[in-house]
Design goal:
Helix content of chain B: 25-40%
CATH topology of chain A: MetI-like fold
Family (chain A): Belongs to the binding-protein-dependent transport system permease family.
CATH class of chain A: Mainly Alpha
Strand order of the largest sheet of chain B: 6-7-8-3-9-10
Number of strands of chain B: 10
Distance between the termini of chain B: 44 Å
Number of domains of chain B: 2
Number of strands of chain A: 0
Largest interface: A-B, 23 and 26 residues
GO biological process, one term (chain A): alkanesulfonate transmembrane transport
Radius of gyration of chain B: 19 Å
InterPro entries (chain A): MetI-like, MetI-like_sf
CATH class of the largest domain in chain B: Alpha Beta
Largest sheet of chain A: none
Low-confidence stretches of chain B: none
Order of helices and strands of chain A: HHHHHHHHHH
Largest sheet of chain B: 6 strands, mixed
Order of helices and strands of chain B: EEEHEEEHHHEHEHEEH
Structural class of chain A: mainly alpha
Strand content of chain A: under 5%
Structural class of chain B: alpha/beta
Number of domains of chain A: 1
Mean pLDDT of chain A: 90
Mean pLDDT of chain B: 91
Shape of chain B: globular
Oligomer: heterodimer
Main location (chain A): membrane
Strand content of chain B: 15-25%
Radius of gyration of chain A: 23 Å
Subcellular location (chain A): Cell membrane
Helix content of chain A: over 70%
Number of helices of chain A: 10
CATH superfamily of the largest domain in chain B: P-loop containing nucleotide triphosphate hydrolases
Shape of chain A: globular
Chain lengths: 254, 261
């Protein structure tokens, strides 16, 4: 975004904050249904000092980040190699296409109860759910990335004398990297979205647990603070991944 | 003279999806050619005459249907840096610098850095890219990308260099620069070159022999010996013999009325 347009973005953000402050602080909107920014700041300070439901705030944040990262990382570790192989071998593609085709359109949240039935209410079902939802994206995007590699680039690799293994690691993998990075970005946002959903069931800690539990006791300021923390972490994570992507893939699209 | 490439009775057929089963299109038939060491051979012909099909077989990208195709007495059955290809499109690895593009081949074959390093520096200097070794392909002009491809091929010390309309996408001025570069590279390394083009002047300027191909069937219509001394300069394009040869080849390339559709 150019500098001139950045002012519009800052202005719209400031306007939203101002509107919220005016509505809540003037009493136009009841504090009990929409807490003011001041209340949220106090609640945040309170959560920092005394924690929530017997655990410090950072441990709720830490637990959620751990679950999201665990599911996400597993999906990358298994999904990228699997996707690359599927993209390169027609037989594997034929084997996996119906399986992926069936499972992918099912919203992952539909599996929550099954996962609890099979894996209990520990970390297993939460990480498993995130893993499964990310996996399809990673596999499909990686496979697509390999299929879209121009034939000529492969020929150039064969022509300079690369063996099949070298061709895979030195040509196919880097050529598919932009698609893999796209998959990683999508998976990271999916994992963060799903961590909240997964913590709605049988969790005793985590940001998802915090917002659900506080809302049940009509403690809306805590719910709002939880939602804002989730949003900010998601934003930072997204920016970090884009920065890595720009650095690693400086050659992309040029 | 050493025979670098021998093609005898070479034939390539493709099965075509649109036609009745069993019916096959003959892309190249009865292709007989011997290329000797240090020769520059240019193949000209209308598009679809099978000249690229021939080059793909020599490169080892596709297999002949029948006939003999040998490089230095060995049957060609797979791609190899022995027969380095300069592609028409600027096919470099975009994630590697110019230098890394050039050395990827030797490095992967287990050549020691002490051996490929100086060789890479030498070929980059020969093609005028020594100052651009750390640039990435996206930072290069079209002409520079083709120079990088030539360097990538030269570094392997190929038996035969295959050039598939390498300057076809460049503008006229750049094409002239590249012709002069190729001539100077030839003076330095004396490689054997098989060059495909549809530009008759380009072929006459570069080649020791110009092979004119005909279409339907794709085979050699005629071979012209080009008598100009090396090193050549653009002055030869003003030579009456140049104009004469060009007129003759252009006439030969023009489709016969009964073949026009």
């Amino acid at each position: 975004m150019t500098t001139s347009y950045r002012w519009y973005s800052m202005a719209s953000g400031a306007a939203l904050l101002a509107l919220w402050s005016v509505l809540t602080l003037s009493g136009l909107v009841d504090e009990r249904s929409l807490p003011s920014p001041v209340t949220l700041a106090q609640t945040f300070a309170d959560l920092l000092a005394r924690g929530y439901s017997g655990s410090p705030l950072w441990s709720h944040v830490g637990v959620s980040i751990f679950r999201a990262l665990a599911g996400f990382s597993l999906a990358i570790l298994i999904g990228v190699p699997l996707g690359l192989l599927i993209g390169r071998h027609k037989v594997l593609e034929a084997v996996f296409a119906p399986i992926i085709g069936f499972f992918r359109p099912i919203p992952p949240i539909a599996f929550i109860t099954l996962f609890v039935f099979y894996f209990g209410i520990g970390e297993g079902p939460k990480i498993g759910l995130i893993f499964m939802a990310c996996l399809w994206y990673v596999v499909l995007n990686s496979a697509e990335g390999v299929r879209n590699i121009p034939d000529l680039i492969i020929r150039a690799g064969e022509n300079i004398g690369l063996t099949r293994t070298q061709l895979f690691f030195k040509v196919v993998l880097p050529a598919a990297l932009p698609a893999i990075m796209t998959a990683i970005r999508a998976a990271s946002s999916i994992s963060w979205t799903l961590v909240v959903a997964s913590e709605l069931i049988g969790a005793q800690a985590g940001l998802g647990f915090m917002i659900l539990d506080s809302a049940q006791y009509f403690n809306l300021p805590v719910t709002y603070v939880g939602i804002i923390i989730i949003g900010l972490i998601g934003l930072v994570w997204e920016l970090a991944i884009s920065a890595v992507q720009r650095r690693v893939l400086h050659w992309q699209g040029k | 003279m050493t025979e670098v490439l021998v093609s005898r009775g070479l034939e390539k057929c493709f099965s075509s999806p649109g036609r009745a089963s069993g019916e096959r299109i003959k892309a190249v038939i009865d292709f007989n050619l011997v290329i000797e060491a240090e020769e520059i051979i240019c193949i000209v012909g209308p598009s679809g005459c099978g000249k690229s099909t021939f080059l793909d077989m020599v490169a080892g990208f596709t297999e002949p249907t029948s006939g003999l195709l040998e490089i230095m007495g060995e049957e060609i059955n797979r791609p190899s840096p022995d027969r380095g290809v300069v592609f028409q499109q600027p096919v470099l690895f975009p994630w590697l610098s110019v230098y890394d593009n050039v050395v990827l081949g030797p490095k992967s074959r287990g050549v020691k850095p002490g051996d490929y390093g100086p060789e890479a520096d030498r070929v980059l200097k020969s093609v005028g890219l020594e100052k651009f070794r750390d640039h990435y392909p996206y930072q290069l002009s079209g002409g520079m990308k083709q120079r990088a491809q030539i360097a990538r091929v030269l570094v392997a010390g190929p038996k035969l260099i295959l050039m598939d309309e390498p300057f076809g996408a460049l503008d006229a001025q750049m094409r002239i620069n590249m012709h002069e570069l190729l001539i100077s590279v030839w003076q330095e390394y004396k490689p054997t070159i098989l060059f495909i083009t549809h530009d008759v002047e380009e072929a006459l300027f570069l080649a020791d022999r110009v092979i004119v191909m005909s279409q339907h069937p794709g085979t050699i219509a005629r071979i012209y010996d080009i008598p100009f001394e090396r090193p050549r300069t653009y002055a030869i394009t003003a030579d009456p013999r140049f104009a004469e040869a060009r007129a003759e080849i252009v006439e030969l390339l023009r489709a016969k009325p009964e073949e026009r559709q």
